[in-house]
Specification:
This protein is mainly α. The protein has six helices and no strands.
Length: 105
């Protein structure tokens, strides 16, 4: 993702999800990808979905995996910060639409 190879990054994420479908770090990075402007599938709803699943899955990991996630700085606060960022971006979109439907979305 750092090199701008978003489609390649998505392929890696998909392969990782196939191997470990309960890994919150993968879903966190997927959420980041969907809020990256250069990504051709930029989508706040998808990003929001993945961050919520990551938050849920974080509660299910065993202590050993939790320790690895903490070393990678994938903490509950990290996930909550991403969720807040998505909500702020969605609010900005709603303001730019400036309609009742936009605010409802």
């Amino acid at each position: 993702m750092e090199k701008g190879s978003y489609e390649k990054a998505e392929g890696s994420l998909l392969r990782s999800l196939e191997k470990d479908s309960l890994n919150p770090a993968i879903k966190y990075v997927y959420s980041l990808l969907f809020t990256t402007n250069g990504f051709n599938r930029y989508n706040l709803d998808s990003s929001y979905y993945f961050i919520n699943v990551a938050i849920h899955d974080l509660l299910l990991v065993d202590p050993k995996e939790l320790s690895r996630l903490e070393k990678a700085e994938i903490l509950e606060s990290t996930l909550q910060n991403q969720k807040t960022k998505i909500q702020q971006l969605a609010f900005e979109v709603s303001l730019s639409i400036n309609s009742l439907d936009g605010y409802n979305d």
